[in-house]
Design goal:
Blueprint lengths: L16 E6 L8 E8 L5 E6 L4 E8 L2 E4 L5 E4 L4 E4 L5 E5 L6 E7 L1 H9 L9 E2 L5 H16 L8 H38 L7 H8 L3 H12 L3 H19 L4 H7 L5 H12 L3 H8 L1
Antiparallel strand pairs: 1-2, 2-9, 3-8, 4-7, 4-9, 5-6, 5-8, 7-10
Length: 287
């Protein structure tokens, strides 16, 4: 079933079209291409096939699966971008009733192989799981229109335009990947702190053991939780102390000791600073 968001795209008002402009004379196999494709009712799009050119596809509408030559599968949804690399077999399968629509850009074999060899493109990440972005759709549309109108003698000037669009996509993916990596890092740390708040945690050592830079971790943690790592650990310790004050008969000294405080005074001081009450007052009022 096609969601409402999928139906809002301007691609609905644009007819299917393919623009392919040859470069280097009639006998040359080099070209720049772009287009809009509507694939309503198509299920098996590409099956275990490789291409000569490089192709980048931006999914505007529809859903499907991309399978690479290593057996990895990637979900395709509106906003996803995927790549077809020269000589690399892959498979794309579309959901038949998802009313698939896409923009694409392709570059002839020699130029695309040179770009891959220079690592301008990344074969290790064939799919970019981005969210729908109208500005990106507009960039593909603008490139398509510019390529279509470009005079023959100025086609070489379209190469930087193609590379600029590809670079824009890679930059968006890098931002997305950094954000995703940050969230995974913070979620992992929060889970560890939650279950190990009774231990003495040296944050610099914790980051080093996980291969993270401390400053990057500290900033990412605060950005995602509104608390510094140290504040989060203190809050979790006080939460644990509150649980024990209500549910157990442990003494205040024992609770403080189990939570890693060197003295009952330091435990009581921090407890009151966070809750506004001493441990004794908290137990008396809520226990």
């Amino acid at each position: 079933m096609v969601g409402k968001k999928d139906m809002l795209s301007g691609i609905d008002s644009r007819a299917q079209q393919i623009v392919r402009r040859s470069m280097g004379g009639l006998s040359s196999r080099e070209y720049l291409g772009a287009g809009i494709m509507h694939k309503k009712g198509i299920e098996e799009d590409i099956f275990d096939r490789s291409f000569e050119p490089y192709v980048m596809v931006y999914v505007v509408r529809g859903r499907g699966i991309y399978r690479d030559n290593k057996g990895n599968s990637y979900e395709l949804t509106p906003g996803s971008l995927f790549q077809r690399f020269p000589g690399v077999p892959h498979q794309t399968v579309l959901e038949k009733d998802s009313n698939w629509a896409e923009y694409f850009l392709d570059i002839g074999p020699a130029l695309s192989r040179a770009l891959i060899a220079s690592r301008f493109m990344d074969e290790e990440n064939p799919v970019f799981p981005l969210k729908p972005d109208p500005s990106l759709e507009n960039l593909f549309q603008d490139y398509l229109e510019t390529l279509k109108r470009c005079p023959e003698e100025e086609l070489n000037k379209m190469i930087p335009e193609a590379l600029s669009l590809i670079h824009r996509v890679y930059s968006l993916f890098a931002l997305h990947k950094d954000s995703r990596d940050e969230r995974e890092m913070v979620d992992r740390a929060r889970n560890y702190f939650f279950h190990n708040c009774e231990k003495r945690i040296i944050l610099e050592e914790y980051c080093e053991n996980n291969g993270w830079g401390y400053e990057r971790f500290r900033k990412a943690f605060k950005k995602n939780t509104a608390l510094s790592p140290g504040q989060f650990i203190i809050q979790r310790r006080i939460d644990r102390a509150c649980e024990w004050l209500i549910a157990t008969n442990m003494s205040i000294k024992e609770i403080g000791s189990r939570l890693g405080y060197p003295s009952p005074y330091e435990f009581s001081h921090q407890f009151k600073k966070v809750t506004g009450r001493s441990p004794r007052e908290y137990r008396k009022q809520l226990g």
